[in-house]
Amino acid sequence: QGGSTVSITVVGASGDLAKKKIFPALFALFYEGCLPEHFAVFGYARSKMSDEELRTMISRTLTCRIDKRENCGDKMEHFLQRCFYQSGQYNSEEEFAELDRKLKEKEAGRVPNRLFYLSIPPNIFVDVVRSASRTASSSGGWTRFIVEKPFGRDSESSGELTRSLKKHLAEEQIFRIDHYLGKELVENLSVLRFSNLVFEPLWSRNYIRNVQLIFSEDFGTDGRGGYFDNYGIIRDIMQNHLLQILALFAMETPVSLDAEDIRNEKVKVLRSMRQLKLEDVVVGQYKGHVKGGKSYPGYADDPTVPKGSITPTFAAAALFIDNARWDGVPFLMKAGKALHTRRAEIRVQFRSVPGNLYRRNIGSSDLDQATNELVLRVQPDEAIYLKINNKVPGLGMRLDRSNLNLLYSERYPREIPDAYERLLLDAIAGERRLFIRSDELDAAWAIFTPVLRQLEDKRVAPELYPYGSRGPVGAHYLAANYNVRWGDIS
Ligand code: BG6
């Protein structure tokens, strides 16, 4: 027959991530005609299920992403017919051998390429990789593994995980996923910087006062407390999602768009960062709150959370990059669950205009409040806007701050692909640009590990904040220490 084939095995197929994100993303790729002609999708998990039962389970979360186009039902049926299931323990070589047998059946004479998506807890990564890589090693095509965070809990455990994985795999086979890197606005960050003359020359301490990376969710851990309590918000969001954005924001111009060139620059900037200090961190935890007659449970009320837990569900931090471009510029991060809104954004606050001719005409008495601010709203309602001072039309001379506004829903009405679609497609294509290399991971942990240890050793009590609020006031004091106001509170 000849030609090649790709199989995608989702290990942990009955988990939430697989159902909500991975299978729907695979279907969306199929729907768009982005998957290779010969492909098969396998689910692997402990529960006993037939192929048909897997298909029924998957079909509940598949949607036709782009309106209700014709043929969607047919395409779904075609996709489901290419989905298969193998049940097994994660450390069972026999059951992986059985999977291998089924994979070979589908590969039938073609060059076999295998992608394994490990949507499972990290303590079983190595078992799975050992069995799966053994069965695949004789196959001729490529074998790749997508791994989901958490990649350890600190520098030490992350290093250990990397070493164990590398006993079975080459670095090129490991695709460490951070789904924030697959988000449209995050991808656009480099485009904005490096292909518009008006931004890059301003991208330094000379013009930028501070940078803010803000993540908030308007829901709590909702039964995910068992996982979350072991990690907390700093490990869940800051050390990965927000730090990755920061690295892309602050890195020097890469030699090219090649994955290694980009990742080299990210590592450099991460390694130029100071270790985070305890006095530059504020932690919080949400407590129960009654609003509009409805009662919202606190983190400690989550039955999956151990009694007396001090795990932070909110954190704010001030980070610094000790290099020529960013010396002295605070990079403020804020991340929290159960806050008043769901939002992820990057805010860049520029310095004030020296000797501003119009200082008397600016409404606010505080000139610092009238500086330019560039906002990249990653979600929801993707947008890029720039706050500028503008003359209020009329006979007088009054200035106010207005937005130059690029709203994606208006400019690009087509729906934006989910981050997992782009990342899966890249992993199939062998494009590593949006995946985390092991030295990047080491550099990221080096920034946060000491403070995480101190928070735990000293049992620093989190400041309680009501569910649905704007989070602990400590975050404002932290920002004020650096003469900064959070841009999302205006
Ligand atoms: C995950 C975190 O990585 O990202 C979750 O573990 C969080 O706690 C999620 O809810 C947020 O992702 P998104 O794409 O919904 O903003």
TrEMBL record:
EC number: 1.1.1.49
Listed Pfam families: G6PD_C, G6PD_N
Domain (Glucose-6-phosphate dehydrogenase C-terminal) ranges: 191-486
Pathway(s) the chain acts in: Carbohydrate degradation; pentose phosphate pathway; D-ribulose 5-phosphate from D-glucose 6-phosphate (oxidative stage): step 1/3
Coiled-coil spans in chain: none
Tagged with keyword NADP: yes
InterPro entries per record: G6P_DH, G6P_DH_AS, G6P_DH_C, G6P_DH_NAD-bd, NAD(P)-bd_dom_sf
SUPFAM superfamilies the record matches: Glyceraldehyde-3-phosphate dehydrogenase-like, C-terminal domain, NAD(P)-binding Rossmann-fold domains
Cellular component per GO, a single term: chloroplast stroma
The reaction(s) this protein catalyses: D-glucose 6-phosphate + NADP(+) = 6-phospho-D-glucono-1,5-lactone + NADPH + H(+)
Broad EC category: oxidoreductase
GO biological process, alphabetically ordered: glucose metabolic process; pentose-phosphate shunt, oxidative branch
UniProt keyword terms in alphabetical order: Carbohydrate metabolism, Glucose metabolism, NADP, Oxidoreductase
Signal peptide residues on this chain, from the entry's feature table: none
Positions of the Glucose-6-phosphate dehydrogenase NAD-binding domain: 10-188
Gene Ontology molecular functions: glucose-6-phosphate dehydrogenase activity; NADP binding
Biological role: Catalyzes the rate-limiting step of the oxidative pentose-phosphate pathway, which represents a route for the dissimilation of carbohydrates besides glycolysis.
Family to which the UniProt record says this protein belongs: Belongs to the glucose-6-phosphate dehydrogenase family.
Name assigned to this protein: Glucose-6-phosphate 1-dehydrogenase
Species the sequence originates in: Eleusine coracana subsp. coracana
